[in-house]
Amino acid sequence: MYCKHYGFAEKPFNLTPEPEFLYMTSGHREALATLLYGIRKGRGIIAMVGDVGTGKTTLLRAAMQRLDKKTKAAFIFNSDMAFKDVLLLILDELGLLKPLEVLTKMEALKRLTNYAIHLYKKGGNLVLIMDEAQNFSRETLEGIRIISYLETNKHKLIQIVIAGQTELDHILENYGLRRFVQRLSLKRYINPLSDNDIYAYLDHRLKVAKYNGPELFDRKAKQMIVAHSQGVPRKINVICDNALLSGYGAGKRKIMGRDIEEVVKDLS
User: Fold this and answer.
1) In what order do the strands lie in the sheet with 158-164?
2) For residue 225, which of 206, 204, 243 has the smallest C-alpha distance?
3) How far apart are CA 88 and CA 104, in angstroms?
4) Which of 83, 104, 130, 164 is the most exposed place for a label (fewest CB within 10 A)?
C-alpha cells in the first residue's frame, strides 16, 4: 500500500519470517552456524531457545535455505498435537504419505526409518525442524527422543532441530525429560537486540527493501523505537509498519518521534 509512496521495492517491516530480511547479530550468526554445523555433522538433537519475536523462525528458514541438495528437510510448525500426528505431518512434508492414507504410529515410524536409511545409503541426510516446541506434550518429546536413536556406529541418521520460547527450558527441566535432555548435543539462545543492533536492524531492513531516499526515521523516532521495542524484532516491525502506514495516510515522507509515540499509544 505505502511502498510506492516511500520508494520501497517491498514492505521492509513485514511480520512474516523472510530469511532475506534476517539481520545477523553475533548471537544470530552463532546460532545459524550451530544449526548448520549440527545438521551437516550429524549431531542429533539441536535446540534453539528464545523469547517471542526474537527471530527463531526466520533463523530456521535461513538454515533451510543453506542446506545442500542431498539434505532433505521437514519443517513442522504446528506443534500442539500428539506424537502420531507429528509423525504423519513429517511424512506428508517429505512426500511420503499418500492422500487420505491412514497409518499406525509404528507404520509411520517404520516408513520414516526406512526413508532415513535410504537417504544415508545414497550419501544424503534427513533433518526434522520443529518450531514452537514449547507446545509439545511430554509424550511428543519422548517420541522425538526415540526418533533420535536411529543411528549407525558413526552417524545419526536423523538430525532434529527443536526451537521454542523460553518456556521450553522449564519444560525440559521439570517434566521428567532427563533422558531427552541427555540427547541434546547442541543448544543456543537467541537474545533481544542491543540498542546499537536496533539502529543497524532498521538500516538493514530498509536496505533490503531497496530504500534509497533520505533518512526515513529521525533521531527521536529511533530512540523511541529502541525504548518501546525492548530489542524484540517483531515489536520493531509492528511499530515501524504502523508508523509508515500512518505516515502514508498523512502524506508524510519522514517518521518523527511524535509519530512513533502516537503509534505506541494506539497499539497499547
Assistant:
1) 71-76, 125-130, 158-164, 45-50, 184-190
2) 243
3) 9
4) 104
Domain span at residue 210 reads 3-16+193-267
Residue type, 194: S
In whole angstroms, what is the distance from residue 125 CA to residue 145 CA?
18
163, 190, 217 — which closes off a domain? 190
DSSP 3-state of 172:
helix
Write the pLDDT tens digit of every residue in 153-205.
778 899 999 999 999 988 888 777 888 888 899 999 999 999 999 999 999 99
Q: Tell whether 47 and 162 lie within a shared domain.
A: yes
Mean pLDDT, residues 256-265 taken together: 96
In one-letter notation, the amino acid at residue 44 is: G
Q: 520508494: which residue's cell?
A: 7
Characterize 37-48 residue by residue with b for buried, 16 or more Cβ atoms within 10 angstroms of its Cβ, and e for exposed.
ebbeebbbbbbb
pLDDT of residue 5: 94
pTM: 0.91
66 shares its domain with 170: yes
Looking at the structure, tell me whether residues 182 and 214 fall in a common domain.
Answer: no
